[in-house]
Amino acid sequence: MKRHNFSAGPCVLPKSVMEQAAKAVVDYDNGLSLIEISHRSKPFVDIMENARALALELLGLEGKGYKALFLQ
Fold first, then answer.
1. What is the structure's pLDDT at 36?
2. Measured between alpha carbons, how far is 8 from 27 in angstroms, rounded to an integer?
3. Could you count the other beta carbons within 10 Å of the beta carbon of residue 43?
4. Contact assessment for residue 34 and residue 24, using Cβ atoms and an 8 Å cutoff
5. Within 10 A of 61 (CB to CB), how many other CB atoms are there?
6. Where are the beta strands (DSSP E) in 1-72?
7. What is the structure's pLDDT at 9?
8. Is residue 14, in this structure, part of any structural domain at all?
9. Interatomic CA distance for residues 67 and 28, integer angstroms
10. How far is the CA of 35 from the CAs of 8, 9, 42, 56, 57, in angstroms?
11. Residue 52: domain span
12. Residue 71 maps to a domain
């Protein structure tokens, strides 16, 4: 039985999402991992812009003047 974390913080993700994320950490762009590319590079900026757009879309807030902000 898979364990689940119900406390505040990270949520349970589908196995396919975890596998895709793990693969990107090892090799995202021609031998460089996602955590090795510059946070100012076009590929990383594209990832963040897509994540912001998806977050607003999933919350039903796109086109309503909101912005998504990711903080550590």
1. 87
2. 30
3. 12
4. yes
5. 13
6. none
7. 66
8. no
9. 26
10. 25, 21, 14, 24, 26
11. 37-72
12. yes
On whether residue 51 sits in a domain, the answer given is yes
Provide the pLDDT for residue 5.
67
pTM: 0.67
Q: How far is CA 28 from CA 12, 56, 59, 61, 65, in A?
A: 23, 25, 28, 30, 32
Contact 68, 55 (CB under 8 A): yes
Q: How many domains does the chain have?
A: 1
Measured CA to CA in angstroms, residue 20 lies from 12, 24, 49 at distances of 15, 6, 18
Residues in contact with 38: Cβ distance below 8 Å, sequence separation at least 6, in sequence order: 44
pLDDT tens per residue across all 72 residues of the chain: 777 667 766 677 788 988 988 888 888 877 888 888 888 989 889 999 999 999 999 999 999 999 999 887
Question: Within a domain: residue 29?
Answer: no
Radius of gyration of the CA atoms of the chain, in A: 15
